[in-house]
Amino acid sequence: MILMIKNYREFSRLKTFMERYEYLRLKGNIGESTFGFDRVFNQMFYSSQEWKSIRNFVIVRDLGCDLGIEGREIIHESILVHHMNPITIKDIETRSEFLLNPDYLISTIHKTHNAIHYGDARLLSQPMIERHINDTCPWRK
Questions:
Q1: Distances from the Cα of 47 to the Cα of 44, 58, 92, angstroms
Q2: Measured distance CA(105)–CA(78) in Å, rounded
Q3: What pTM did the predictor assign?
Q4: I want to staple 19 with a disulfide (CB 3.0 to 4.6 A). Which of 5, 14, 76, 120 is the partner?
Q5: Residues facing residue 12 across a β-bridge
């Protein structure tokens, strides 16, 4: 199996949210183990000052938008910074290039993050629909 390394340079050329989602989609399985009993290592990493610093850089670069798409500003949710290439315990131990390089990171929300990992677009948040006076009552124009 050939592993495609995903990066921000390629990703940023994609203009729509769905194109970006499809680029990142992993098609994983719910409950599929990532760190298992070694979860303490990834939690230590995510609480480190170097992670917090690069996380802030990525959020600013992406303008606080889900998958960096303007119009999908993350306002009422926590911003997650997603590794485009899933990391392992070995990546943390060896300080691999995927760990802290912004070219392999993107801002997202929890629903989008889950949709990426589980390959299910039904999990994605739908954009807000702009409402107008009487738009639900066509006879009141």
A1: 5, 16, 13
A2: 16
A3: 0.82
A4: 14
A5: none
